[in-house]
TrEMBL record:
Residues 38-179 form the PPIase cyclophilin-type domain. CDD domains: cyclophilin. It comes from the Bacteria. SUPFAM superfamilies: Cyclophilin-like. The lineage of its organism: Bacteria, Pseudomonadati, Thermodesulfobacteriota, Desulfovibrionia, Desulfovibrionales. This is Peptidyl-prolyl cis-trans isomerase. The keyword Signal applies.
């Protein structure tokens, strides 16, 4: 009986802590990325990349990401999206200056994809499926998945070294949490 009461109390305390953490999240700096599998919550990091966070929120609020596919998904590495053409060569048409930081690329890190130039990030981004320390200091970190990685893990993987996906999953909808709460 004593062990059961202790277990129940511990479970209750954990629930309260999780609820407090959820309330502490800033809705203006939280994204909801809805997949067919479920909702992924991303904490934005304006402290690391203010220009990138502002641009991502701007694109999200126009519905830019809704329906866009995960065109490149590499098992054990990352899932990439944000190209309206679905080919890996498109974007919104506005490049951003890199905002590199010391924040490491760990599982769930959201980073800005780019071409050869450091300042070529546009609208494409990726979510790390595993730690990727070789990206540290070379790509802009602008977010971190705080819940829903189990849904990111379900995104269809590509074939071969390029990771291009034949029948890609897509973003159903992406929203700033503050806009959802306001409705």
């Amino acid at each position: 009986m004593k062990r059961t009461v202790t277990t129940v109390l511990a479970s209750l305390l954990l629930s309260l802590l999780l609820a407090a953490a959820a309330l502490a999240a800033d809705p203006e700096n939280t994204l909801y990325l809805d997949l067919e599998y479920g909702r992924v919550t991303i904490e934005l990091r304006p402290d690391l990349a203010p220009a990138h966070v502002a641009r991502i929120k701007e694109l999200v609020r126009t519905g830019f990401y809704d329906g866009i596919v995960f065109h490149r998904v590499i098992e054990g590495f990352m899932a990439q999206t944000g190209d309206p053409t679905g080919t890996g060569t498109g974007g919104s048409g506005k490049n951003l200056r890199a905002e590199f930081s010391l924040q490491p690329f760990v599982r769930g890190t959201v980073g800005m994809a780019r071409a050869q130039s450091e300042h070529s990030g546009d609208s494409q981004f990726f979510i790390c499926l595993a730690p990727a320390p070789f990206l540290n200091g070379q790509y802009t970190v602008w977010g971190q998945v705080t819940s829903g990685m189990e849904y990111v893990d379900k995104i269809r993987k590509g074939q071969g070294a390029s990771g291009m996906v034949q029948s890609p999953d897509k973003i159903v909808r992406m929203q700033v949490a503050a806009d959802v709460a306001a409705k």
